[in-house]
Amino acid sequence: MTIGVLATLTVAEGKNAEFEALFKQLVEQVNAQEEGCNFYQIHKSRTDGQVYKVLEQYTDQAAFEAHGKSDYFREIGRSLGPCMAGPPEIELVDGI
């Protein structure tokens, strides 16, 4: 069963360009290196310019867990911290 992730990220005012540049690096790394990730994409809200949605899908629980443990995820995640207006909202969903 696939595992989906819907993440809502709210970025601090004035940090959008920095956030987008860093997150694009993360998207490239995930899509290039994680065979168990079917897709990893970020989208910007049309109604609130500070809100981004990350859509992710993993082949199984092991692939999802490997994503969070990867060095590049942890490294870029630390760099993204100062760009954030608050903690991410994460929803896990199961494929049917």
UniProtKB/TrEMBL annotation:
Which branch of life, at top level? Bacteria
Q: Which UniProt keywords apply?
A: Monooxygenase, Oxidoreductase
MF (Gene Ontology)? monooxygenase activity
A Pfam family this chain is assigned to = ABM
Q: Which SUPFAM superfamilies match?
A: Dimeric alpha+beta barrel
Q: Which stretches make up the ABM domain?
A: 3-92
Question: What protein does this entry describe?
Answer: Antibiotic biosynthesis monooxygenase
Q: Which organism is it from?
A: Candidatus Litorirhabdus singularis
